[in-house]
Amino acid sequence: MARSITVTTPQSEYDIIIDAGWIDAQKINEIIQNRKYLIVTDENVYSHYGDLLKSFECLVLPVGEGTKSLKYFEKVIDLLQDKQFNRSSVLIAFGGGVIGDLTGYVAASYMRGIHFVQIPTTLLAMVDSSVGGKVAINHTSAKNLIGAFYQPEAVYMDVNFLKTLTQKVLSDGMAEVIKYGLGFDPKLFSKLEALNLDKLSSPEHQEAVLDIVETCCRIKAQIVHEDERDVAVRQLLNLGHTIGHAIEQFYQYKKYTHGQAIAIGMVVKSRIAFFEKRIDQQAIERIEKLFEQYHLPLELEEPKMFSTLLEAIHLDKKSTGAHIKWICVDAIGKCRIEGVQFEEIAQKIKNMNRECDL
Ligand SMILES: NC(=O)c1ccc[n+]([C@@H]2O[C@H](COP(=O)([O-])OP(=O)(O)OC[C@H]3O[C@@H](n4cnc5c(N)ncnc54)[C@H](O)[C@@H]3O)[C@@H](O)[C@H]2O)c1
Ligand SMILES: [Zn+2]
Residue ranges of the chain with pLDDT lower than 70? Predict the structure, then answer.
Protein backbone atom coordinates (compact mmCIF):
# COMPACT_ATOMS: atom_id res chain seq x y z
CA MET A 1 0.00 0.00 0.00
CA ALA A 2 1.26 3.44 -0.90
CA ARG A 3 2.23 5.64 2.00
CA SER A 4 0.93 9.17 2.03
CA ILE A 5 2.02 12.19 4.04
CA THR A 6 0.31 15.58 3.93
CA VAL A 7 2.51 18.64 4.20
CA THR A 8 0.66 21.68 5.51
CA THR A 9 2.13 25.17 5.40
CA PRO A 10 0.40 28.54 5.84
CA GLN A 11 -0.05 28.88 2.07
CA SER A 12 -0.41 25.33 0.82
CA GLU A 13 -1.23 21.71 1.47
CA TYR A 14 0.08 18.84 -0.61
CA ASP A 15 0.73 15.12 -0.46
CA ILE A 16 3.89 13.10 -0.63
CA ILE A 17 3.12 9.63 -1.97
CA ILE A 18 5.72 6.91 -1.47
CA ASP A 19 5.68 3.43 -2.98
CA ALA A 20 7.80 0.99 -4.99
CA GLY A 21 7.53 0.31 -8.73
CA TRP A 22 4.47 2.45 -9.33
CA ILE A 23 5.63 5.37 -11.46
CA ASP A 24 5.07 4.36 -15.07
CA ALA A 25 3.95 6.21 -18.23
CA GLN A 26 0.30 5.97 -17.19
CA LYS A 27 1.04 7.51 -13.80
CA ILE A 28 2.96 10.35 -15.43
CA ASN A 29 -0.01 11.00 -17.71
CA GLU A 30 -2.26 11.14 -14.66
CA ILE A 31 0.08 13.66 -13.04
CA ILE A 32 0.03 15.81 -16.19
CA GLN A 33 -3.82 15.80 -16.34
CA ASN A 34 -3.97 17.09 -19.92
CA ARG A 35 -2.09 20.24 -18.95
CA LYS A 36 0.73 21.79 -20.94
CA TYR A 37 3.81 20.28 -19.25
CA LEU A 38 7.58 19.87 -19.36
CA ILE A 39 9.60 17.19 -17.61
CA VAL A 40 13.03 18.43 -16.55
CA THR A 41 15.72 15.81 -15.94
CA ASP A 42 19.47 15.29 -16.32
CA GLU A 43 21.49 13.24 -18.81
CA ASN A 44 22.40 10.59 -16.29
CA VAL A 45 18.84 10.06 -15.09
CA TYR A 46 17.65 10.03 -18.72
CA SER A 47 20.22 7.35 -19.55
CA HIS A 48 18.57 5.11 -16.91
CA TYR A 49 14.94 6.08 -17.41
CA GLY A 50 14.81 7.04 -21.10
CA ASP A 51 12.39 4.15 -21.79
CA LEU A 52 9.93 5.57 -19.30
CA LEU A 53 10.41 9.19 -20.40
CA LYS A 54 10.79 8.85 -24.17
CA SER A 55 7.12 9.37 -24.99
CA PHE A 56 7.07 12.63 -22.99
CA GLU A 57 8.32 16.13 -23.66
CA CYS A 58 11.60 16.29 -21.73
CA LEU A 59 14.33 18.83 -21.24
CA VAL A 60 17.50 16.86 -20.52
CA LEU A 61 20.12 19.00 -18.78
CA PRO A 62 23.79 18.30 -17.98
CA VAL A 63 24.58 16.42 -14.79
CA GLY A 64 25.93 18.22 -11.73
CA GLU A 65 25.78 21.25 -9.49
CA GLY A 66 26.69 23.58 -12.40
CA THR A 67 23.17 23.08 -13.76
CA LYS A 68 21.71 24.92 -10.76
CA SER A 69 22.79 28.19 -12.33
CA LEU A 70 21.42 31.37 -13.88
CA LYS A 71 22.49 30.02 -17.28
CA TYR A 72 20.22 26.97 -17.06
CA PHE A 73 17.51 28.93 -15.26
CA GLU A 74 17.37 31.17 -18.33
CA LYS A 75 17.49 28.21 -20.68
CA VAL A 76 14.42 26.64 -19.07
CA ILE A 77 12.58 29.98 -18.99
CA ASP A 78 13.37 30.52 -22.70
CA LEU A 79 11.87 27.16 -23.50
CA LEU A 80 8.72 27.83 -21.46
CA GLN A 81 8.31 31.16 -23.21
CA ASP A 82 8.81 29.51 -26.64
CA LYS A 83 6.17 26.94 -25.78
CA GLN A 84 3.85 29.61 -24.43
CA PHE A 85 3.54 28.11 -20.98
CA ASN A 86 0.98 29.83 -18.80
CA ARG A 87 -0.22 29.73 -15.21
CA SER A 88 -2.11 26.49 -15.76
CA SER A 89 0.94 24.65 -17.14
CA VAL A 90 2.99 22.26 -15.02
CA LEU A 91 6.71 21.64 -14.61
CA ILE A 92 7.82 18.20 -13.46
CA ALA A 93 11.23 17.73 -11.86
CA PHE A 94 12.41 14.17 -12.50
CA GLY A 95 15.81 13.78 -10.87
CA GLY A 96 17.97 14.49 -7.85
CA GLY A 97 18.23 17.64 -5.78
CA VAL A 98 19.92 19.61 -8.54
CA ILE A 99 17.03 19.11 -10.95
CA GLY A 100 14.44 19.60 -8.18
CA ASP A 101 15.96 22.86 -6.94
CA LEU A 102 16.41 24.36 -10.42
CA THR A 103 12.98 23.28 -11.72
CA GLY A 104 11.31 24.47 -8.54
CA TYR A 105 12.95 27.86 -8.77
CA VAL A 106 11.88 28.22 -12.40
CA ALA A 107 8.34 27.19 -11.42
CA ALA A 108 8.36 29.78 -8.61
CA SER A 109 9.55 32.55 -10.93
CA TYR A 110 7.92 32.02 -14.32
CA MET A 111 4.80 34.22 -14.46
CA ARG A 112 5.14 34.56 -10.66
CA GLY A 113 4.52 30.87 -10.17
CA ILE A 114 3.25 27.90 -12.14
CA HIS A 115 2.37 24.35 -11.09
CA PHE A 116 5.26 22.19 -10.03
CA VAL A 117 5.57 18.47 -9.26
CA GLN A 118 8.56 16.70 -7.77
CA ILE A 119 9.53 13.14 -8.73
CA PRO A 120 12.76 12.75 -6.77
CA THR A 121 15.13 10.00 -7.91
CA THR A 122 17.99 10.17 -5.38
CA LEU A 123 17.77 9.27 -1.70
CA LEU A 124 18.79 12.80 -0.74
CA ALA A 125 16.06 14.27 -2.93
CA MET A 126 13.45 11.89 -1.46
CA VAL A 127 14.23 12.51 2.21
CA ASP A 128 15.33 16.10 1.99
CA SER A 129 15.33 18.40 -1.03
CA SER A 130 11.92 17.52 -2.54
CA VAL A 131 10.13 18.11 0.77
CA GLY A 132 9.62 21.54 2.28
CA GLY A 133 9.62 23.93 -0.67
CA LYS A 134 13.13 25.36 -0.59
CA VAL A 135 14.09 25.91 -4.22
CA ALA A 136 17.20 27.66 -5.42
CA ILE A 137 20.01 28.12 -7.87
CA ASN A 138 23.64 28.96 -7.17
CA HIS A 139 25.40 32.24 -7.79
CA THR A 140 29.07 32.24 -8.69
CA SER A 141 29.72 33.69 -5.23
CA ALA A 142 27.63 31.26 -3.14
CA LYS A 143 25.49 28.12 -3.23
CA ASN A 144 21.70 28.52 -3.15
CA LEU A 145 22.02 32.30 -3.05
CA ILE A 146 19.08 32.88 -5.39
CA GLY A 147 15.97 31.08 -4.25
CA ALA A 148 12.46 31.00 -2.89
CA PHE A 149 10.09 29.08 -0.68
CA TYR A 150 7.78 27.48 -3.20
CA GLN A 151 5.85 24.32 -2.40
CA PRO A 152 5.10 21.74 -5.10
CA GLU A 153 1.55 20.58 -5.83
CA ALA A 154 2.65 17.02 -4.99
CA VAL A 155 5.71 14.83 -4.51
CA TYR A 156 5.74 11.31 -5.95
CA MET A 157 8.44 8.92 -4.77
CA ASP A 158 9.25 5.52 -6.22
CA VAL A 159 11.97 3.84 -4.15
CA ASN A 160 12.78 1.53 -7.08
CA PHE A 161 14.57 4.53 -8.63
CA LEU A 162 17.15 4.17 -5.86
CA LYS A 163 18.32 0.86 -7.35
CA THR A 164 20.24 2.58 -10.15
CA LEU A 165 22.13 4.98 -7.85
CA THR A 166 25.87 4.47 -7.42
CA GLN A 167 26.95 3.42 -3.92
CA LYS A 168 28.55 6.84 -3.49
CA VAL A 169 25.34 8.76 -4.22
CA LEU A 170 23.33 6.36 -2.04
CA SER A 171 25.81 6.71 0.81
CA ASP A 172 25.69 10.48 0.43
CA GLY A 173 21.90 10.45 0.88
CA MET A 174 22.27 8.14 3.89
CA ALA A 175 24.08 10.92 5.74
CA GLU A 176 20.81 12.92 5.71
CA VAL A 177 18.86 9.80 6.73
CA ILE A 178 21.21 9.25 9.68
CA LYS A 179 20.69 12.92 10.56
CA TYR A 180 16.97 12.21 11.12
CA GLY A 181 17.83 9.16 13.26
CA LEU A 182 20.52 10.88 15.29
CA GLY A 183 18.68 14.17 15.75
CA PHE A 184 15.03 13.19 15.93
CA ASP A 185 14.14 9.51 16.09
CA PRO A 186 15.92 6.79 18.12
CA LYS A 187 13.76 4.04 16.52
CA LEU A 188 14.89 5.12 13.06
CA PHE A 189 18.47 5.08 14.32
CA SER A 190 18.06 1.45 15.51
CA LYS A 191 16.44 0.46 12.24
CA LEU A 192 19.41 1.86 10.33
CA GLU A 193 21.77 -0.14 12.53
CA ALA A 194 20.15 -3.34 11.26
CA LEU A 195 20.77 -2.45 7.60
CA ASN A 196 23.66 -1.43 5.36
CA LEU A 197 24.17 -0.07 1.83
CA ASP A 198 23.90 -3.51 0.15
CA LYS A 199 20.75 -4.41 2.05
CA LEU A 200 19.14 -1.10 1.06
CA SER A 201 19.34 -2.15 -2.58
CA SER A 202 18.07 -5.71 -2.12
CA PRO A 203 14.41 -6.65 -2.80
CA GLU A 204 13.87 -8.33 0.59
CA HIS A 205 14.48 -5.01 2.35
CA GLN A 206 12.11 -2.98 0.21
CA GLU A 207 9.59 -2.51 3.04
CA ALA A 208 12.36 -1.29 5.33
CA VAL A 209 13.46 1.24 2.70
CA LEU A 210 9.86 2.44 2.31
CA ASP A 211 9.60 2.77 6.11
CA ILE A 212 12.83 4.76 6.27
CA VAL A 213 11.88 7.17 3.48
CA GLU A 214 8.43 7.62 5.00
CA THR A 215 9.82 8.26 8.50
CA CYS A 216 12.27 10.89 7.24
CA CYS A 217 9.56 12.63 5.21
CA ARG A 218 7.18 12.63 8.20
CA ILE A 219 9.83 14.24 10.39
CA LYS A 220 10.60 16.87 7.76
CA ALA A 221 6.91 17.49 6.99
CA GLN A 222 6.20 18.12 10.69
CA ILE A 223 9.12 20.51 11.03
CA VAL A 224 8.19 22.38 7.83
CA HIS A 225 4.61 22.61 9.10
CA GLU A 226 5.87 24.29 12.26
CA ASP A 227 8.41 26.56 10.60
CA GLU A 228 8.25 26.76 6.80
CA ARG A 229 10.49 29.84 6.63
CA ASP A 230 13.41 28.38 8.56
CA VAL A 231 13.46 30.90 11.38
CA ALA A 232 13.06 28.51 14.31
CA VAL A 233 12.69 24.75 14.61
CA ARG A 234 13.58 24.06 10.93
CA GLN A 235 17.13 25.04 11.82
CA LEU A 236 17.40 21.73 13.68
CA LEU A 237 17.66 20.13 10.24
CA ASN A 238 21.06 21.80 10.00
CA LEU A 239 22.51 19.27 12.44
CA GLY A 240 26.12 18.75 11.29
CA HIS A 241 25.77 21.39 8.57
CA THR A 242 27.73 24.34 10.04
CA ILE A 243 30.84 22.22 10.13
CA GLY A 244 29.79 20.33 6.97
CA HIS A 245 29.43 23.51 4.92
CA ALA A 246 32.76 24.78 6.22
CA ILE A 247 34.43 21.53 5.12
CA GLU A 248 32.78 21.67 1.68
CA GLN A 249 33.81 25.30 1.18
CA PHE A 250 37.29 24.84 2.54
CA TYR A 251 37.95 22.03 0.06
CA GLN A 252 36.10 23.92 -2.70
CA TYR A 253 33.46 21.20 -3.03
CA LYS A 254 36.05 18.80 -4.45
CA LYS A 255 37.38 16.56 -1.70
CA TYR A 256 34.24 15.76 0.27
CA THR A 257 30.66 15.28 -0.89
CA HIS A 258 27.89 17.02 1.04
CA GLY A 259 26.98 13.77 2.80
CA GLN A 260 30.57 13.08 3.80
CA ALA A 261 31.04 16.62 5.07
CA ILE A 262 27.90 16.63 7.22
CA ALA A 263 28.77 13.13 8.51
CA ILE A 264 32.02 14.58 9.86
CA GLY A 265 30.01 17.50 11.27
CA MET A 266 27.60 15.14 13.04
CA VAL A 267 30.45 13.06 14.45
CA VAL A 268 32.04 16.25 15.83
CA LYS A 269 28.70 17.12 17.46
CA SER A 270 28.40 13.63 18.91
CA ARG A 271 31.97 13.66 20.23
CA ILE A 272 31.33 17.03 21.88
CA ALA A 273 28.17 15.53 23.46
CA PHE A 274 30.29 12.64 24.76
CA PHE A 275 33.00 14.99 26.01
CA GLU A 276 30.37 17.13 27.75
CA LYS A 277 28.85 13.94 29.25
CA ARG A 278 25.44 14.19 27.59
CA ILE A 279 25.92 10.81 25.90
CA ASP A 280 27.85 7.78 27.15
CA GLN A 281 30.60 5.62 25.67
CA GLN A 282 28.14 3.09 24.27
CA ALA A 283 26.18 5.83 22.45
CA ILE A 284 29.23 7.40 20.83
CA GLU A 285 30.39 3.95 19.70
CA ARG A 286 26.99 3.22 18.16
CA ILE A 287 26.98 6.59 16.36
CA GLU A 288 30.47 6.18 14.89
CA LYS A 289 29.75 2.57 13.86
CA LEU A 290 26.59 3.66 12.03
CA PHE A 291 28.42 6.23 9.90
CA GLU A 292 31.08 3.64 9.07
CA GLN A 293 28.41 1.10 8.19
CA TYR A 294 27.19 3.45 5.45
CA HIS A 295 30.72 4.21 4.21
CA LEU A 296 30.73 7.72 5.64
CA PRO A 297 33.85 9.28 7.19
CA LEU A 298 34.18 10.05 10.89
CA GLU A 299 36.82 12.72 10.53
CA LEU A 300 38.90 14.61 8.03
CA GLU A 301 41.56 12.62 6.22
CA GLU A 302 44.05 15.16 7.53
CA PRO A 303 42.73 15.86 11.07
CA LYS A 304 45.28 18.62 11.53
CA MET A 305 43.43 20.63 8.89
CA PHE A 306 40.63 21.09 11.39
CA SER A 307 42.29 24.04 13.09
CA THR A 308 42.90 25.73 9.71
CA LEU A 309 39.28 25.05 8.86
CA LEU A 310 38.10 26.52 12.16
CA GLU A 311 40.11 29.61 11.36
CA ALA A 312 38.35 29.78 7.97
CA ILE A 313 34.92 29.58 9.64
CA HIS A 314 36.03 32.26 12.06
CA LEU A 315 37.12 34.66 9.34
CA ASP A 316 33.87 34.02 7.52
CA LYS A 317 31.77 34.57 10.66
CA LYS A 318 33.66 37.73 11.53
CA SER A 319 32.36 39.29 8.38
CA THR A 320 28.80 38.09 8.99
CA GLY A 321 28.63 38.31 12.79
CA ALA A 322 30.07 35.71 15.14
CA HIS A 323 26.79 34.44 16.58
CA ILE A 324 26.06 30.93 15.36
CA LYS A 325 23.00 28.71 15.67
CA TRP A 326 24.69 25.55 16.84
CA ILE A 327 22.76 22.28 16.86
CA CYS A 328 23.77 20.05 19.78
CA VAL A 329 23.21 16.34 20.16
CA ASP A 330 21.59 15.56 23.53
CA ALA A 331 20.96 11.84 23.00
CA ILE A 332 20.54 9.43 20.10
CA GLY A 333 17.33 10.77 18.60
CA LYS A 334 17.41 14.19 20.24
CA CYS A 335 18.98 17.47 19.23
CA ARG A 336 18.60 21.08 20.29
CA ILE A 337 19.45 24.57 19.03
CA GLU A 338 21.93 26.63 21.03
CA GLY A 339 22.92 30.18 20.11
CA VAL A 340 26.68 30.43 20.68
CA GLN A 341 29.54 32.74 19.88
CA PHE A 342 32.11 31.43 17.47
CA GLU A 343 34.79 31.47 20.19
CA GLU A 344 32.76 29.03 22.29
CA ILE A 345 32.57 26.61 19.37
CA ALA A 346 36.28 26.84 18.75
CA GLN A 347 36.88 26.11 22.43
CA LYS A 348 34.47 23.17 22.45
CA ILE A 349 36.20 21.64 19.44
CA LYS A 350 39.67 22.25 20.83
CA ASN A 351 38.72 20.69 24.21
CA MET A 352 37.20 17.73 22.49
CA ASN A 353 40.19 17.28 20.20
CA ARG A 354 42.50 16.98 23.17
CA GLU A 355 40.19 14.47 24.79
CA CYS A 356 39.18 12.46 21.73
CA ASP A 357 42.28 12.77 19.61
CA LEU A 358 40.26 13.82 16.55
N1 LIG B 1 15.91 22.23 -1.50
C2 LIG B 1 16.37 21.68 -0.41
O3 LIG B 1 15.75 21.74 0.66
C4 LIG B 1 17.67 20.94 -0.48
C5 LIG B 1 18.07 20.12 0.59
C6 LIG B 1 19.24 19.40 0.47
C7 LIG B 1 20.00 19.49 -0.69
N8 LIG B 1 19.58 20.30 -1.71
C9 LIG B 1 20.34 20.40 -2.96
O10 LIG B 1 20.29 19.12 -3.60
C11 LIG B 1 21.42 19.01 -4.45
C12 LIG B 1 22.03 17.63 -4.28
O13 LIG B 1 21.06 16.67 -4.64
P14 LIG B 1 21.49 15.19 -5.04
O15 LIG B 1 22.40 14.64 -4.01
O16 LIG B 1 20.24 14.47 -5.35
O17 LIG B 1 22.40 15.43 -6.31
P18 LIG B 1 22.16 15.35 -7.89
O19 LIG B 1 20.84 15.86 -8.27
O20 LIG B 1 23.36 15.94 -8.51
O21 LIG B 1 22.20 13.77 -8.13
C22 LIG B 1 23.35 13.04 -7.83
C23 LIG B 1 23.73 12.14 -8.99
O24 LIG B 1 22.80 11.06 -9.08
C25 LIG B 1 22.33 10.95 -10.43
N26 LIG B 1 21.00 10.35 -10.34
C27 LIG B 1 19.86 10.92 -9.93
N28 LIG B 1 18.90 10.00 -9.84
C29 LIG B 1 19.42 8.84 -10.25
C30 LIG B 1 18.91 7.51 -10.38
N31 LIG B 1 17.68 7.19 -9.98
N32 LIG B 1 19.74 6.54 -10.83
C33 LIG B 1 21.02 6.84 -11.16
N34 LIG B 1 21.56 8.06 -11.05
C35 LIG B 1 20.77 9.04 -10.59
C36 LIG B 1 22.40 12.33 -10.97
O37 LIG B 1 22.47 12.32 -12.37
C38 LIG B 1 23.71 12.82 -10.35
O39 LIG B 1 24.80 12.34 -11.09
C40 LIG B 1 22.38 20.13 -4.08
O41 LIG B 1 22.34 21.11 -5.08
C42 LIG B 1 21.80 20.69 -2.78
O43 LIG B 1 22.04 22.07 -2.63
C44 LIG B 1 18.44 21.02 -1.62
ZN1 LIG C 1 22.22 18.56 3.85
Answer: 314-322, 354-358
